[in-house]
Design brief:
three-stranded antiparallel sheet, 32% helix, 21% strand, alpha+beta, globular, 11 strands
Length: 211
Amino acid sequence: MVDYALKLLSHGFLCVPLSRRGRHLDIETIGYAPLHLQTRRKNLKELCFNSVAFHLSQHPPSPETIKSWFDGFESNIGIIGGYMNLMILDFDKVSAYQRWQRENHDLVASTPVARSPHGFHVYLKTVKPTVSSSLHFGFHRAGHVKALGGYVLSPPSELKDGYTYRWLPEQSPFEVAPQTIESLESLSLLPVSPLKVFYDRLLNRGRFEPN
């Protein structure tokens, strides 16, 4: 796992340790107090995970620190979004991915892609820093954008049900580099529902444009 994490780092992917057969950051291994476990509050857990992911993307650990995290480590491994402007499109359903992929076949075929339990992770680079958000294709929610403040499980992580994440053939980061895009909109994607954008404009409500 140490060699794998360092090899990913050499290709521009920052790895972090996750819980055994789970999705949560291993906060203690990284060096933070697991306050969310003391309070059992979901909002504190989300604050902790988002803050740690954002901090690491801006102040990445040294290779020596990564070695210490993964030396003898037998749990899951994650990839931090936002590091070197990395963005992961996390499609929750195969059907949503397939509808979008048909319009972006050449792009998808030339960038790292991983299979997740119910969908796909598409790894890209953005020209400008991008925040994590929801992911909408047309009028349907397709999943999530994992960028600044976010992370995804990386192959070969395994979940409790036995599912193992895997790179698509010839589309691992060791075989292809993430393609760079201008914005989500250039891929016909939005961070919020187009209906919300419409109603915000209709009601003259201000909204922050994250991308």
